[in-house]
Amino acid sequence: MNGQFQIATHVLTLLCKQPGELLSSEYVAGSMNVNPVLVRKEMRKLRVCGLIESKEGKTGGYSLALPPQKITLADVYKAVKLPPALGQAKNKPNPACPVGKQIGAHLDHLADDVEAAIIKKLSTITIFDFVNQFD
Amino acid sequence: MNGQFQIATHVLTLLCKQPGELLSSEYVAGSMNVNPVLVRKEMRKLRVCGLIESKEGKTGGYSLALPPQKITLADVYKAVKLPPALGQAKNKPNPACPVGKQIGAHLDHLADDVEAAIIKKLSTITIFDFVNQFD
DNA sequence: CAAACTGTAACAAATTTAATTACAATATAA
DNA sequence: TTATATTGTAATTAAATTTGTTACAGTTTG
Q: In this predicted model, what pLDDT tens digit does every residue of A92-115 receive, in sequence order?
């Protein structure tokens, strides 16, 4: 169970709903019933990718670094770096077998195509769109 | 690290390359350096979905249940039932928060869309196509 | 200078996946 | 008919990953 994408999307939704305000990891964690440190870990990824900004010190917190129309769910997906959708084999196929020798490259190519399909789909949805679904 | 899709695809590739022959879990496991019981577990999923057939007893083993042109990688993906590509949150968002109250439904809908995009992509590739990439 | 934050590291707990062992059931062949 | 090789499956252990927790240094404000 990996909830990193869900956490990141949840935070961005809150930031989008309360523009201008700096939200603390404690506050955000309370909205999703999750540990504040885990929130800060996801925020680091979003900050490295330029999607949010953070301010330290008293009155510190997080805010969007871009207008919500400019942030797509593909950006979020890339930022959080989930494990590949098709999984990842850890076995080393037998190189003496003609299939085993080549299948790794073909599976990698396929995995790339699937990741591209996911990103294509997610790139059509901005955080603005996502938040507009809410009542 | 989840290699279930890779194992299933590897087995189907071997079955496709050696039509008519019954391949044992031991033989197949040798080609991919993995435990034979793990192979049999994946084969069960493929058999339940009607992609392969198995024969018990001495001289038993596995074979394709359909022509390889009729088996798509989407069939394989559905058979192995990987965890969702966007992950799965285990937290229960705070229902007192307007965002927390609704986000679960919106994230579920999004996850469905992404799974559909993956399946759409994979449904364009048959095991026959995949195997034809090999030398 | 005290208070409330972020940023991180380190470690424990929980969950998931893979490997291993064991054995019943089945089918073939000698 | 009996030994053998296989699938089918359960149970257990080992390994890897994710989440939760604690701790604390660094930063900014009042």
A: 999 999 999 999 999 999 999 999
CA distance A55 to A22: 8
Report pLDDT digits (tens) over A24-45: 999 999 999 999 999 999 999 9
Residue in chain B closest to A78 (alpha carbons) equals B86
Q: Nearest CA to B125 among B4, B2, B7, B12?
A: B12
A80 CA to D25 C1', in Å? 26
Q: What is the pLDDT of residues B123-134, one digit of tens each?
A: 999 999 999 999
Q: Using an 8 Å Cβ cutoff, are B82 and B115 in contact?
A: no
pTM of the model: 0.94
Among chain A residues 14 through 73, which have CB within 7 angstroms of nucleic chain C? 23-26, 36-37, 40-41, 43-44, 47, 54-58, 60-62
Measure B124 CA to D9 C1' (Å): 34
In degrees and rounded to multiples of 5, residue B53 shows phi and psi of: -125, 155
Angle between helices A36-48 and A25-32 (to 10 degrees): 110
